[in-house]
From TrEMBL:
PANTHER family, sorted: TRANSKETOLASE N-TERMINAL SECTION-RELATED (PTHR47514)
Organism: Streptomyces alfalfae
Pfam families documented for this protein: Transketolase_N
SUPFAM superfamilies: Thiamin diphosphate-binding fold (THDP-binding)
Sorted UniProt keywords: Thiamine pyrophosphate
Lineage of producing organism: Bacteria, Bacillati, Actinomycetota, Actinomycetes, Kitasatosporales
Residues of the signal peptide: none
Family: Belongs to the transketolase family.
Name of the protein: Transketolase
Amino acid sequence: MSRGLSLEIRRKVIEMSASPNGVHIGGSMSIADILAVLYADVLRDPAAEGMSGDRDHLILSKGQASAALYAVLAATGVIPQAECATYAEEGSRLGGHPMKRLPGVDFSTGALGHGLPLALGVALAGKRFDHGKRAFVILGDGELQEGSNWEAAMAAAHHGADNLVAIVDRNGWQISGRTDDCMSLEPLADKWAAFGWRVLGVDGHDHDEIRTALTRPVEPGRPTVVIAHTVKARGVPGLEDTKQSHSATLGTAARRAALAVLDGDRA
């Protein structure tokens, strides 16, 4: 089921890339498989209203990849499929970054470095009130250059937030260029471990690896980070693993070429 869902997410992102405002197609395509596994196999009622109950919460901290989130919300029936055609239009609920007024979005995001602290707050509230809720947050690798992430990482381990899972989209790019050329993150796994987190590494396009990591039993008292190694703009000819994929409006020919790749994957 998750593989079919990932194809639907990619197809919707490509369709939205016709918008004259452009889509952050690189980061949206790199997290498509992660979102597919989360929504198909992991999250419990993520689009439920309110903060109470034992539902799970997903926070897309790298809000520039909103097109992928809208695609999965449409594919899973949370929002109408036709609404994706309004992406980034004036008055649309589907902005360039997710906004809280949309079902399935608990927090407006995109100011990088805020998602992990928000997710920690949700996780700690769940533990305090014994809701059984879990908080998942998707972070960009370039976003980890924001110090607020490391403050939250330190606090999460200190408070034993074992119902918190951070997923790092390690696609190797940020708006200014290669992530490690702008500000090296390595040794990234060791950094998280030094802050007291359980660290798991996966191929961010391998559904079995992603699923196994996200469904592992909790390690009591320790939050979990999954470092997902991905390819920016995966499946889009000419844009894979390039800076140009950061924000793009795809013309008709480019969209057809990308959809042909998806049709080949589906076959």
